[in-house]
Every structure is written in C-alpha cells, then in structure tokens.
Amino acid sequence: MPFEVLLDQKRIAHRVAELGGQITADYADETPVLVCVLKGGIIFLADLIRTIKLPMELEFVWATSYRRGTTQSDDLVLGGELAIPLKGRHVLIVEGVVDSGKTVVAIQKRIQDQEPATMEVATLIDKPASHRVKLNIKYKGFSIGNDFVIGCGLDNTQKYRNLPFIGRVLEQ
Ligand code: IMP
Ligand code: MG
User: Fold this and answer.
1) Which of 86, 95, 142, 152 maximizes the CB count within 10 A of its CB?
2) Where are the alpha helices (DSSP H) in 27-60?
3) Which-ligand-closest: CA of 126?
4) What angle in degrees, to the nearest 10, is found between the helix axes of 9-26 and 42-49?
C-alpha cells in the first residue's frame, strides 16, 4: 500500500511534549484519569503521559467501527470496563484520531453518565472537515484534511500501527 510521510517522528515528539506541558499546567494539583481509546490511542497515550508531570490514573476502553480499509461505516461497538469510579474526577479521553467524531461522542456519553468533575479530549490527529457531530477537542496534536493516515497507533486493516511516523495513504 503506497503512502508518504505526512508528519515525521521529530515533529510529532515536539508537538506531543507541548501538549504534555499544557496538560501539566491545566491540571496542576489534580490527579486526572486518562481514558485511552484502544487500539488507536495507545502510542499517543504512551508518548503523552511521559511528558505529563503529574500523578495520574489510566483507564482503557476500546472502540471498533467495523470499517474495512479506508471506507466508513457506522457500526460502532464500545467495550472495556471503566474500573475506576469517575464521579468527581478530571477525565481526559485520549484518542489517536478523530474523524466523524462519533466514537468520541459515544465514549463521552458513557463517561458523562458517571458525572466526572470535568471531561476533555486529547487526540493526536484531528480531521475537522470530517466531523459529523459537534465536538470540543481541547488538546489536538495536528489538524489534517480528509486524508487517511497510518502509524503511531493508527491502522489500515490492523496493520501499520507500529510505524513511528504518521503516513498519508496515497490513492492506488
Ligand atoms: P470517528 O469517525 O471519529 O468515530 O473515528 C472512528 C475510527 O475510525 C477512529 O477511532 C479510527 O479507528 C478510524 N479512523 C478514522 N480515520 C482514520 C485514519 O485516517 N486512519 C486510521 N484510522 C482512522
Ligand atoms: Mg481502525
């Protein structure tokens, strides 16, 4: 599958460190709960948390949207136990990519039921032109166009998650 490098490792590391600094300042004196959306959020989470100088707790949920390759589908399935009680906590959802926004909204709804003190979203990649729902994403690594991207946790049919850069899939 042909692709080209869109964001290189150095640029990503620099931006992630900036976000980590911002989160450290915004949550000073708090112990946020970071809720990582598997599988795509895992690399961003791992990189991001090592730049946040705060005590924190981690949770994981998974989301599958049953899309084949780069085409979209609406069959969203959420899973994973939220073992930490989130009532009154500062929750930060950590995603790899926000496309239509439906996944994030579904996860926000689930967390909102537990009445957290605050709930924000961090994503490595945002595709604002693709949003189909109203979203407030406080921490964005990079905003891109409608490209399909791979690497840093993001897959194409489960592969390429381990690429250390963000690649843009080229038309075949
Ligand atoms: P949503 O449309 O915002 O709900 O995104 C659903 C899911 O689609 C994301 O969590 C990713 O798993 C996947 N996705 C959307 N765009 C991309 C992309 O460019 N690369 C890899 N996965 C993507
Ligand atoms: Mg995927």
Assistant:
1) 152
2) 42-49
3) 1
4) 60
Is the Cβ–Cβ distance between 102 and 76 less than 8 Å?
yes
Q: Which of 99, 113, 126, 155 is catalytic?
A: 99
pLDDT, tens digit only, all 172 positions of the chain:
999 999 999 999 999 999 999 999 999 999 999 999 999 999 999 999 999 999 999 999 999 886 656 665 567 888 888 889 999 999 999 999 999 999 999 999 999 999 999 999 999 999 999 999 999 999 999 999 999 999 999 999 999 999 999 999 998 7
Question: Chain centroid to CA 42: how far?
Answer: 8
Asked if 126 is an active-site residue, the reply is no
What is the torsional sign of CA 96, 46, 27, 82? positive
